[in-house]
Amino acid sequence: MTSVLFDLDGTLVNSSPGILAAFHFAFERLQLPLLTDKELSTFIGPPLEVTFAQYFTEKDDIDRAIQTFREYYNQKGVHQVSLYPGIADLLEELNRLGYSLYVTTSKHEPMAQLMLTELGIMKYFKQVYGSTPEHFHKADVIATCLKDHQLPLDTTAIIGDTKFDMIGGKETGIRTIGVTWGFGSSESLKEHDAETICQTPQDVPKALQDLQ
Known about the structure:
alpha/beta, Rossmann fold, 2 domains, six-stranded parallel beta sheet, 44% helix
């Protein structure tokens, strides 16, 4: 492997406090059925467009729901986040080993950049790719990164914690590594064709080496 695409939420950072608070705010404001944190946690990972399409059919209503979520998240939720233990050391190690690192996330791109900057790890990444209104599925985000940097598919891997990362990797033809410290499960990652699974950030360098 020469290039590594990292998912953000649930892979690099524990962003659940801010995301859950934003969903609670949005659901109450939009008068949707109130859900528990456990129920809302299933919405961490998929694009907001996909989540709110479960409650609304009209695009204008979905857009309004997303804006309501971001009303809270952009002001408060983006700051309610922490790095997972071992991530800073992992990024330092991969940088030392010469990997080209990118972020490919379904999060709104400006918020992803702000989060990485505040956490002090923006310096490790060549570029950060997030969702846009036109391209919000993980495969779309990955494809944009691959195209912009002309990355070879057979030496590029996506590292993520949910099935959406594995699906996005498979759809774009790159290698897939699942991690279990985030919001997904080992079973779900395996079901969606993760080539290997890491239990801790310390496992990642060997996993990348084994994919060679």
